[in-house]
Amino acid sequence: MMFAIDEINRDTDILPGIKLGFKIYNDCGSTDILMAVMTLVNGLDQSETGANCTKPPTVQAIIGHSGSTPTMSFAKIVGRFHIPVISHFATCACLSNRKEYPSFFTIPSDYYQSRALAQLVRHFGWMWVGALSNKNDYGINGITTFINAANEEGVCIEYSEAFESTSPYHEIIRIVNIIRTSTSKVIMAMSHREIRILVHELYRQNITGLQWIGSDAWITDDSLADINGYTLLIGSIGFTVRNAQIPGLDLFLQEVNPSQFPKSIFLKDFWEHVFDCSLNPSEIRKACNGSENLRDVQNSFTDLTDLRFSNNIYKAVYAVAHAINNLLSCDQNKSFNSNSSCLKLVEIKPWQVRHSLQSINFTTPGGENVFFDNNGDSPARYELINLQSVNKGKMKVETIGYYDASFPKGQRFSMNNVQVVWREGRHLVPVSKCSESCPPGTRKAVQKGKPVCCYDCILCPPGEISNSTGT
Question: What's the CATH number where 194 sits?
């Protein structure tokens, strides 16, 4: 976010003569974000830069939160004030409901991802699968859409279970027992914390041979290699938003320092942690001497190999900037100002920014086209990810295919030429069927009380024939 705003403020082609300000709140994954939201709504925030400026009485847009459930709460609140909210990671399809969340914009919702995952399952011939999710809005909505889409593809669901990472141990054991006794070998999982707990217990009980399909909630999380039993997840596949390069970000990170943003608590804490020094007089730590820089630092902050969700934040900032820029352009604001005169920055209202966001269409400095559909969703384009083993205790994320919902049906999914690693490092595509195909001379007879994927093969009646497999 800081880089995008700095880049925009230096650019003479967008918002010339105007500088964007910002305030970053770290919600630490909790609902404390509501307090921050009310501060922004009431116009009580202070800019991170601390610069003197003329600004509107209230914030023009909010970027975040990453979680769907917290987002649902605060998006409804700020929606009453017509303040646009752009999330980089909250993907619950429920947030695409324009009646409930008229001011919300996001990356592609789980409606598209879940349907893409169902087509993925069908592509590999997995007609018999299990489904797991957590009990929050993201998990329930995502897995429900997946099951409905899978049924449309002719895929049968052996079981569908929801649980929480905070569930009692006996509940985890119940889920493990379902997996142990099931005949399906492919499991679709929508949750992050839950899969860590579940895999740990599966490993403890030596339950192996499962092919995992993951949502973007966990499929790119290399920290999963830290858990006991991570080898069970090697070979997992799933969709996530496409990776991207952000030109100039590396140089910005190398040059950034607390003196540029003296009011940034995040940067202060980060700096003191990385260099083990104090920016304020302290008897515990040595004082930072000003010579510290990030050029030689190697950690998750400076690692730019995976910018999937960082790029979403980058695009969100640019989206707001372009929306405001359009409002300030004389030939763009006729629907916002009856006398068609140019708006001034202090005159812009959040509802005008929201309205302008709906019609933006621009290309980022990195060459990516950005726009939103009528529901506030951006185009559904995904990479198919495969978790592969590098060495003991490490996994790497390998892109093995692509999905683009804008393409005609039948052309949306494609594989590249990268070698796929399947369950637990194997190289053969797993098989997951309730029943084997019926040979010639027999026909299917659906088993009573079972899905259509489960059947017996019985001999054809006298005078009738079946001369092909699977009829």
Answer: 3.40.50.2300
Residue 374 in any domain: the answer is no
Report the alpha-carbon angle 262-263-264, nearest 5.
95
Q: How many domains, the chain?
A: 4
Domain of 447 in residue numbering reads as 437-471
Q: State whether 157 and 187 are in the same domain.
A: yes
Q: pTM of this prediction?
A: 0.86
Distances in whole angstroms, Cα of residue 209 to Cα of each of 74, 215, 229, 233: 42, 20, 13, 10
For tokens 């449309």, the residue is: 152
Taking only the tens place, the pLDDT of each residue in 195-252 is 999 999 999 999 999 999 999 999 998 788 888 889 999 999 999 999 999 999 999 9
Residue (of 390, 365, 96, 123) closest to 237 by Cα position: 123
Q: How far apart are CA 179 and CA 187, in angstroms?
A: 9
Question: Are residues 233 and 117 both part of a single domain?
Answer: yes
Residue 375 within a domain: no
Q: List, in order, residues 6 or more apart from 402 with CB less than 8 Å away.
A: 242, 381, 382, 383, 384, 413, 414, 416
**How many other CB atoms are found less than 10 A from the CB of residue 372?**
18
